[in-house]
Design a protein that fits this description.
Layout lengths: L3 E4 L2 H8 L4 E4 L2 E4 L9 E5 L5 E3 L26 E3 L4 H12 L3 E5 L4 H13 L6 E4 L7 H9 L5 H33 L13 H17 L4 E11 L2 E7 L6 H10 L5 E17 L7 H12 L3 H13 L15 H17 L36 H5 L3 H15 L6 E12 L2 E12 L26 E12 L8 H9 L8 H9 L9 H10 L3 E4 L2 E4 L1 H10 L7 H15 L5 H25 L13 E4 L7 E5 L2 E4 L9 E3 L1 E2 L2 E2 L2 H9 L6 E5 L5 E9 L2 E5 L1
Parallel strand pairs: 1-4, 1-7, 7-8
Antiparallel strand pairs: 2-3, 3-4, 5-6, 9-10, 9-14, 10-13, 11-12, 11-14, 12-13, 15-16, 17-18, 18-19, 19-20, 21-22, 23-24, 24-25
Helix pairs in contact: 3-5, 5-17, 5-18, 6-15, 6-16, 8-9, 8-13, 9-12, 14-17
């Protein structure tokens, strides 16, 4: 019987087909007999996830309507269905699997690839087939053939599927229950919005919110330093005294102590020490390090990098991109070393090869598990083919190529010189850097690097120098907002934000929030839900995101540690050391606790009974023009017919009291509000009053 090869998507199936002689059929390819498959084979494909979990209403009609009374949603057993619009391809796979005795899982070699294959296989209802696993890191013809010659059994694959299925169901449970719970409770407070909750996405939004709060709470403070501008025989340089004071007086006292004042003086070079330093080439790229580099250099979003790298992988130009490893094995190093000169010619960067001996920094078999670092494939394309790539593909291909070539280049070398200049016993310190050999850095165009010390002029010990002394004022800087590229690193290293040491260790062990393959998708999801926005590559939390974070503050949903503990247990399931049933039972208890705790938490978090409307949400028909609607805008409420001349507006804050959507609705529909507590008069006294709308203006009634 001909074995059936199941690929994850059509492009992957085509790459497998390229390794054999095939005939295209409807929804599959037929492979001609060959030494690997003497009878021939069939290659078919999914379209990503062909099979998905059923909607809550499929289990119980009461779960069709969103209501607090119908929660929790905890089915006794979980049911799956063929995704809408995908049944034709599913039926092709089902027919082929029914008629064979051997099925080869050739989906992506990761947790999700195992999930896609087994969810399709189980949905067919077919049982008892011999299942084998293709495990490769490149779609090149040679590697594909080698992989099919050495198929693995499916023991590890089945464990990965159990892990992925438990992850899928837990995400569904947290999303279905958490989203309804928070949306309904916030709707009671006047916010007619859906707040999507996610096991990984919600703590990610909260980390961004925390950084934004730090920036907003930051109070700049002045500080004072003493700087010397020095003129030597062979050039000028600057130095600073070891002082950073909050008050100018402290700097003045130090000058007075040494009999100095601001202005001209004479100094002497007391110490001068030069050290040669080396910087080895940067490690090879994992997906996240490549996403960070591409965001820094070209402002590409993490999702764009993953998408472009997937295209390069399918074009057989780079190895598997969804990798968290920054090492390769001796096997990959062997082919890279053998072809290094060809790679150099390909991107026209000739340099003498420093060494073809593998270094532990890059080559370490023990640090490569499922996948190795992202490197160019064995087959060297033509320069014309690389030149014909779209700009973004060429940029990323060259980044991978140059990083790989830097393994064979010299270290970057520079000389660091430290100088102490004595002015009447007050020491001024200066550090200078002189480049000796660009080495591997010559492979990369100069980028805006962190401020580096300029080279120093030639200076001699005991040389006398003219000095100009000044007290200079600086101001402390707030923390910087995240760029989109930094979000990946923030998610990966969020263990450093955990206060509890054990939580911090777990976060380090599971490498933070999400996985290499999912982080960019999580960022896209929270953008799509309008929790964050990215402008000029800077990330900020929206009003909706801020509201969500205020609602979950202090709850486990805001904690990366909770997600990490879950991820840690999921990995145990993947290793065969944990149980999916135990894990999902824990998730069920967590959801029941949420339902119990959240209503009170919203009150203790200081969430008002009536919330200000979110930007863009319609509140009422405009009382002036009767055509438009009053909506919330930044810092005010206004009419949607503003562009056509309607000038009706309401302030978001009136006499230091924030007006809610409900207050505005009363004004628009009834012309007045009930008594509002907490207005503040000009002399700072609090008072209560109702508001009335007269000729479009707010009046107070006591």
């Amino acid at each position: 019987m001909k074995p059936v090869i199941v690929a994850e998507k059509p492009s992957q199936a085509k790459a497998y087909g390229d390794a054999f002689q095939t005939v295209k059929r409807e929804g599959y390819m037929e492979v001609a007999p060959n030494p690997i498959f003497p009878e021939g084979a069939f290659i078919t494909w999914g379209i990503g996830h062909l099979v998905e979990l059923k909607e809550p209403k499929a289990y119980d009609p009461k779960w069709n309507k969103w209501s607090l009374a119908s929660l929790p949603i905890l089915p006794v057993e979980y049911q799956f269905q063929v995704a809408r619009g995908k049944s034709k391809q599913f039926n092709v796979i089902k027919k082929l699997i029914k008629e064979t005795d051997t099925v080869i899982n050739a989906c992506d070699v990761d947790r999700e690839g195992s999930n896609i294959f087994y969810s399709i296989y189980r949905q067919t209802g077919v049982r008892g087939k011999n299942i084998l696993r293709l495990w490769i890191n490149s779609l090149e013809v040679d590697e594909v053939r080698e992989g099919f010659r050495n198929l693995r059994d499916n023991k590890q694959d089945l464990r990965l599927y159990e892990e992925a299925r438990a992850r899928q169901i837990s995400d569904w449970l947290v999303g279905m229950n958490g989203s309804r719970l928070y949306s309904l409770l916030l709707q009671e407070r006047g916010i007619q919005e859906v707040f999507a909750i996610g096991r990984v996405q919600t703590p990610t939004v909260f980390l961004i919110y925390q950084r934004q709060k730090e920036i907003e709470a930051f109070k700049p403070e002045p500080f004072y330093e003493i700087e010397g501008q020095f003129k030597a025989q062979k050039g000028n340089y600057k130095g600073k005294a070891k002082l950073r004071a909050k008050e100018r007086q402290k700097a003045q006292e130090l000058l007075d102590k040494h009999g100095l004042s601001e202005g001209k003086a004479e100094g002497v070079i007391k110490e001068r020490k030069s050290t040669e330093k080396r910087m080895p080439p940067q490690p090879l790229h994992s997906l996240s390090s490549l996403q960070a580099a591409a965001n820094r250099k070209w402002k590409y979003s993490p999702q764009k990098v993953l998408s472009v790298m997937q295209k390069l992988y399918e074009k057989k130009l780079v190895s598997y991109p969804r990798t968290d490893s920054r090492h390769i094995t001796t096997a990959e190093f062997g082919y890279l070393a053998a072809q290094v000169e060809s790679y150099q010619q390909l991107i026209d960067v000739p340099f003498p090869i420093a060494s073809k001996t593998p270094k532990k920094r890059f080559v370490d078999n023990s640090k490569v598990q499922e996948h190795y670092a992202i490197i160019p494939t064995k087959s060297v394309p033509t320069t014309r083919r690389i030149a014909a790539l779209p700009q973004d593909e060429r940029n990323l291909y060259e980044e991978v190529m140059r990083t790989t070539l830097s393994m064979f280049h010299r270290d970057y070398r520079y000389e660091e010189t430290k100088v102490v200049t004595d002015v009447k016993g007050l020491e001024f310190h200066t550090t200078g850097r002189t480049e000796l050999d660009k080495g591997w850095k010559s492979l990369f165009s100069a980028t805006k690097e962190a401020k580096q010390e300029p080279p120093l002029p030639e200076l001699a010990l005991q040389e006398k120098v003219a000095a100009a002394i000044a007290i200079i004022e600086g101001i402390t800087s707030p923390p910087k907002p995240y760029t989109e590229g930094q979000l990946i690193a923030m998610m990966k290293t969020c263990g450093k934000f955990a206060e509890d040491e054990a939580d911090s260790e777990i976060l380090k062990e599971v490498e933070g929030l999400g996985t290499e393959a999912t982080r960019s998708n999580i960022i896209e999801t929270i953008k799509r839900h309008n929790y964050i926005e990215v402008k000029k590559n800077i990330v900020s939390v929206t009003e909706k995101g801020r509201m969500l974070c205020q609602a979950i503050e202090g709850n486990l949903l805001s904690s990366p540690s909770m997600t990490a503990k879950w991820e840690s247990y999921l990995k145990k399931i993947g290793r065969g050391e944990g149980s999916a049933d135990v894990f999902l039972a824990t998730i069920g208890k967590f959801i029941e606790k949420l339902l119990e705790d959240v209503p009170e938490q919203l009150r203790s978090n200081g969430m008002p009974d009536q919330m200000p409307a979110l930007q863009g949400s319609e509140i009422a028909i405009c009382p002036r023009c009767r055509k438009g609607s009053i909506v919330s805008r930044r810092g005010a409420y206004g009419c949607t017919e503003h562009a056509n001349g309607c000038k009706q507006s309401f302030p978001a804050v009136f006499l230091k009291k924030r007006l809610t959507a409900k207050h505005i609705e009363y004004l628009c529909t009834k012309g007045k509000t009930p008594v509002i507590k907490g207005f503040v008069s000009k002399n700072g006294k609090k008072f209560n009053a109702s508001l009335e709308l007269e000729e479009g203006k707010l009046k107070m009634r006591f």
